[in-house]
Amino acid sequence: MAPLIKSPRKLIEVALPLDVINVAAAREKSIRHGHPSTLHLWWARRPLAAARAVIFAQMVNDPGYQQGGGFKYGMEKKKAAEERKRLFKIIEDLVQWENTTNEVVLERARVEIRRSWREVCELNKDHPQAAELFNPEKLPALHDPFAGGGSIPLEAQRLGLEAYASDLNPVAVLINKAMIEIPPKFAGQPPVNPEARKKLGASGSWKGAQGLAEDVRYYGVWMREEAQKRIGHLYPPIEITAEMAKERSDLKPLVGQKLTVIAWLWARTVKSPNPAFSHVDVPLASTFILSSKPGKEAYVQPVIEGDQYRFAVKVGKPPAGAKEGTKLARANFRCLISGVPISGDYIKKEGQAGRMGARLMAIVAEGAQNRVYLAPITEHEAIAKVQKPEWKPVGNVPAKLTGGTCVPYGMKEWGDLFTPRQLVALTTFGDLVSEAREKIQRDALVVGIADDGKGIDVGGTGAKAYADAVSIYLGLALSRLTDICNSLCRWENTRTQVRNLFSRQAIPMLWDFAENNVFAEAAGDYRISLTNLIKALDRMPAKGTGFVFQSDAQTQNISLNKIVSLDPPYYDNIGYADLSDFFYVWLRKTLKSVLPSLFATMAVPKTEELVATPYRHGNKEKAERFFLDGMKKGSRSPPCP
Q1: How far apart are CA 625 and CA 628, in angstroms?
Q2: Is the pLDDT of residue 12 over 50?
Q3: Count of CB atoms situated within 10 Å of the CB of 569
Q4: Is the dihedral of CA 521, 525, 527, 528 positive or negative?
Q5: Euclidean distance between CA atoms 574 and 585, whole angstroms
Q6: What single DSSP character describes residue 64?
């Protein structure tokens, strides 16, 4: 029989200021700058405020009186209520976003955690394993076996605990490494790039992950500049001509100017089912509205010329029917030329036969103060279509997903989700990550960082490992970019911007899509992706130590002698592994040489994933049994209070 462990009730078992925690957690959804969610997308990321509050309350003893189990603890009811009120105030301050990096507030919480731990150690000083388990000078480590987006391990590290994270999913593992493992390893280290080194004399010290973040910025900017030299011609500006302005008074002040294109808007096409027009590729446009902003309305107007058509762009209030485009209902459309209905089954058949195409419907450019909407021009359409990518991702898009999938329409492999131009751009950036890695290592050696020859995957801390570390963030920025640089991104006409694919947890079919300009200094530009990532990196705790492992929660033993804190995966709502393959195929290409063991498999492991998906397990009952059995194994309690 295991020796009895004496532990008072924790604050989380008695009471919490839930209203304050909930308000702070809800507010977090609208915070972008510096939030870990901007490091890389993860589905169902837990709010930092909630994770921080839960860990604090899980570690701190409730002050109420209790006895039994061989010990007495706590104070009488009135004093306990006052003390609990004091602890609640600590939590209320702790969960505010503004206090995420406030050392005064954080240290106040750490003091309480250390105090409670010393009390537990005192109660267990006669335990046979007291020296191993109950050292009052060393807080216990905390492990999350379902780390996912990493909120719990990150906040454990912020509160002074040694953080352990594990997950079966390699994308989740990489995100956690970037948050809790890499920043502390290089904390306080000055940047190695020559630009920053010139300024070191006047800039003072580099705290936390600031030096690392500065190198990510510098080498990321270098990558973008190099990419623009190599493929910038694929993203040409558009010159406003007098001919364009003939019927558009809004364009007259812009005649002669070359405007940066923000996005090219495409409509997918199929052959008309009407035998008389079976040679015509007709558009599947869910809407012709380009901007619905009051006073800035713009729309596409199809112009039919015999058995052909072209797209004109107009400004002003759109006519009736423009909002629906050529869509009838759900996945059913009408032939633009003849008006004949195009059924969803017909579209699926055409897509699966490889006969679905795309036609440029409009061009969105950046004006002096507003978006400028223009009709397509032949040169721009030709540039987008002639590119022959040297590589494209392979692997099957999941055929079944809650929320929909594009597979029934012939988009079966990951490479099918990208236009040729997007594939060229993304592979160019991917190649530049490798080139940047070599450049970083050379610069690190120049400034005197030791060359131990070990990469970050084997615990190195020298020039090679540092180059690996910076490259991981550059690769994450590229992976992040793929979410808004694919052919399933829609044009949001209410906000006049490109929306990313994963605005929800699905890979649904999209009939008209927006292809962004990766050099436009707007959403979809690598620099924007990089800048958001750097802001998040700069706010990481970068203190203590963090350890991240790829491991199946059902069989891992990492939790041994550690505090376990977890938020289990959704029962059957999100297929994390299926969705993660979208990013994994790009991360693997870019970072396999950096983390070979993490990217050893062709796809994300799925069989052991704890999600109750009937199509993997035969039926709903078997899926439920698998999930519940796995949760029992994965959340088992270790022999530690």
Answers
A1: 5
A2: yes
A3: 24
A4: positive
A5: 19
A6: B
Q: Model's pTM, two decimal places?
A: 0.93
The two three-digit tokens of residue 117, written as one number: 């731990």
* Cα angle 95, 500, 382; round to 5: 155
The Cα 468–Cα 449 span in angstroms is: 14
> Do 178 and 476 form a contact (C-beta atoms < 8 A)?
yes
Pairing of strands 497-499, 490-492: antiparallel
The first and second tokens of residue 213, run together, are 């973040």
- Give the Cα separation of 400 and 113 in Å (integer): 45
Quote the tokens at residue 462. Answer: 């020298």
Q: Is 271 left (phi over 0), alpha (psi -120 to 50) or beta?
A: beta
DSSP H/E element including 301 = strand 298-305
> Across 105-217, where does the E strand assignment appear?
142-144, 163-167
Torsion angle of the four alpha carbons 599, 604, 607, 613, in this order, in degrees rounded to the nearest 10: 170
Contact, 425 vs 515, CB < 8 A? no
Asked whether 516 and 523 are in contact (CB, 8 A), the reply is yes
Token output for 57: 């309350």
Average pLDDT over residues 306-319: 96
Q: What is the pLDDT of residue 573?
A: 56
Measured torsion, CA atoms of residues 138, 139, 140, 144, in degrees rounded to the nearest 10: -140
Amino acid type, 615: Y
Contact 319, 289 (CB under 8 A): no
CB 144, CB 566: distance < 8 Å: yes
- pLDDT, residue 629, reads 64
β-strand 163-167 against 142-144: which pairing, if any?
Answer: parallel
**Measured torsion, CA atoms of residues 386, 391, 392, 394, in degrees rounded to the nearest 10:** 140
Q: Which of 25, 48, 54 is nearest to 36 (CA)?
A: 48
Instruction: Kindly give the pairing relationship between strand 261-271 and strand 281-284.
Output: antiparallel
- Among 207, 490, 269, 448, which residue's Cα sits nearest to residue 364? 490
Q: How far is Cα 528 from Cα 520, in angstroms, rounded to an integer?
A: 10
DSSP string, 328-357: EETTEEE-TTT--EE-HHHHHHHHHTT--E
HSE-up of 273 (CA within 13 Å, CB side)? 17
pLDDT of 202 reads: 47
**Per-residue pLDDT reduced to its tens digit, 116-156:** 999 999 999 999 999 999 999 999 999 999 999 999 999 99
Do the Cβ atoms of 274 and 340 come closer than 8 Å?
A: yes
